[in-house]
Amino acid sequence: MVDLGVKIGNLDLKNPVMTASGTFGYGLEFEDFFDLNRLGGFVVKGTTLHARQGNPYPRSAETPSGMLNAVGLQNRGVKYFAENIYPRLEKFQTNVLVNVSGSTVEEYVECAEVINELEHIPGIELNISCPNVKEGGMTFGTSCPSAEAVVRAVRKVYDKHLMVKLSPNVTSIEEIARAVENVGADSVSLINTLLAMAIDAESRKPLLSTITGGLSGPAVKPVALRMVWQVAQAVKIPIVGMGGIMNAADAVEFMLAGASAIQVGTAGFVDPLAPVKIVEGIEDYLKRHKIESVTDLVGSLQL
Amino acid sequence: MMNKTVQNLRVLSNIQLNRDHHLLELQAPVKLEQIAPGQFVNVRVEKSQSTFLRRPFSIYGVDYEKNTISLFIKDVGPGSHVLTSTPEGEEVDVVFPLGNGFSYPEENERILLVGGGFGIAPLLFFARELKKRNLDVHIHALVGARTSDDLMELNSFAQCGEVYSTTEDGSHGVKGRVTDHPALKDRLQKFDRVYSCGPEPMMEAVAAKAAAVDVFCEVSLENTMACGFGVCLCCVTDTTSGHQCVCTDGPVFNIKDLKW
Ligand SMILES: Cc1cc2nc3c(=O)[nH]c(=O)nc-3n(C[C@H](O)[C@H](O)[C@H](O)COP(=O)(O)O)c2cc1C
Ligand code: FES
């Protein structure tokens, strides 16, 4: 028997596999495909204080090994979530995290306050890295002072697990990671999507309504791995790695680079069963390598 | 209704209908439960250098005895090309059934199905289902195409009811577009319901006619999708209640809810 359990600060995960915000809806949409309790946890879609319509269509474009999106945080607001969605999530025996976003520090704070009251939500993932909204979002995550300001303010009102999701669209992701660690983040998750662009040569038009959008999928994996590695050298808090994870080998690579857990995003569009296949694949990997606990993998890159 | 599932389906037959349309019959390894006309499948495209995401296709028919799902596929790009090139015996990875079907007419109603291109697929599935269930519904189908060579499945529609056609070059049926046909132009009030699937400009024109005479009208939309089951929010269309997902709130919409 191998032990798949991991700890991310005060969160206990039965295995290191979570699913990524914005790619897993509220989880309920996946229930036909597999038992969500098999996951270490899942992060529900980006939630803001007030409802948002998101960006106009078209919102996605394909690349040979990934996709761009420009959804822009479409959601019905945190009150709707708390009243209508949350009651349907209480039954799950796994970690259900809410991804929180906003245009101002006050919006982040008020949203986090509402979620703080929800007993079965053990943590939030603070999204300071969404590239698809005009105000707030990524702009908070691209400078140390603004990242610190929003994390410090949320930390004051939120007493459960505070995971901060970092943007790859920065010069030094280690500096941002250190900054949020210093003001009370319990963990960091990375990476959010990479700012990107797609054009249709025939029509000479951009493929996304917003012209630029966020790239995800296997195309970003090498960049994501590099960033997880760099952040692992810079901070002591646990790291949740993501970006292009399609299978168990990818997941193991992130853990070797220093991630304590991982999130699966875009892969679930191509294969809705990818998250559970990755859980099984990690277990196989551990058996094959005679490793007793998955935690032994974390940061164990052989140099 | 059948829950959504991911399965490998075996290609039982792959028949080329004309220059660029294929009919694929896929056999499921699990017992097929009720699938509604208008629902779709999302097919994984392997063996393609340039694609990454699945490709959605409307369901053209379900044979519950043979346990097969048929798809009517136009070879339009790298994704559909891989599928139309899949030989018999090979397997394809399919997520199904997705989305919502057309709403059923009441007893004795007269319905008009208006299709163009591969949009005829869900309409023919619908017509056959209505016929099979022996519902006392009067089915009329209007199929539009550029030339007579592009007109397909007229005989299949004829087995379900009345069939009309238009071609832009006048080589078959009424010359012009579907909206030039008397069924849509002059006699639309005689129908209780209109259902349309095809190129968006065609559906918009049909919707405008239906709205003008206040006849119930449903259209089946087609937007670019990433997931196909409501988690990515990439496939939205503008409705009177805001952005809605074509994959889960549709693909069938009542035109009253659309901002056309
Ligand atoms: C359609 C789509 C929507 C997303 N929405 C969000 C979101 O609301 N909040 C967030 O923090 N990240 C969002 N992301 C980013 C993912 O959570 C993840 O960080 C990114 O896609 C990289 O992982 P992947 O390559 O496994 O998808 C979204 C990604 C996609 C593809
Ligand atoms: S395609 Fe993902 S929500 Fe419709």
From TrEMBL, chain A:
One of its GO terms (biological process) is 'de novo' pyrimidine nucleobase biosynthetic process. It is an enzyme of class 1 (oxidoreductase). Coiled coil: none annotated. Keywords: Cytoplasm, Flavoprotein, FMN, Oxidoreductase, Pyrimidine biosynthesis. FMN binds at S21, K45, G46, N99, N127, K165, I191, G217, G243, G244, G265, T266. GO terms for cellular component: cytoplasm. Its EC number is 1.3.-.-. The keyword Cytoplasm applies. Its cofactor is FMN. Binds 1 FMN per subunit. It is found in: Cytoplasm. NCBIfam families: PRK07259.1 (NF005574), pyrD_sub1_fam (TIGR01037). Belongs to the dihydroorotate dehydrogenase family. Type 1 subfamily. Catalyzes the conversion of dihydroorotate to orotate. This is Dihydroorotate dehydrogenase. It comes from Prolixibacter denitrificans. The gene is pyrD.
TrEMBL record, chain B:
Pathway: Pyrimidine metabolism; UMP biosynthesis via de novo pathway; orotate from (S)-dihydroorotate (NAD(+) route): step 1/1. Keywords: 2Fe-2S, Electron transport, FAD, Flavoprotein, Iron, Iron-sulfur, Metal-binding, Pyrimidine biosynthesis, Transport. One of its GO terms (biological process) is 'de novo' UMP biosynthetic process. It holds the Pfam family NAD_binding_1. The keyword DNA-binding does not apply. It comes from the Bacteria. PROSITE patterns: FAD_FR. Its cofactor is FAD; [2Fe-2S] cluster. PANTHER family: DIHYDROOROTATE DEHYDROGENASE B (NAD(+)), ELECTRON TRANSFER SUBUNIT (PTHR43513), DIHYDROOROTATE DEHYDROGENASE B (NAD(+)), ELECTRON TRANSFER SUBUNIT-RELATED (PTHR43513:SF3). This is Dihydroorotate dehydrogenase B (NAD(+)), electron transfer subunit. The gene is pyrK.
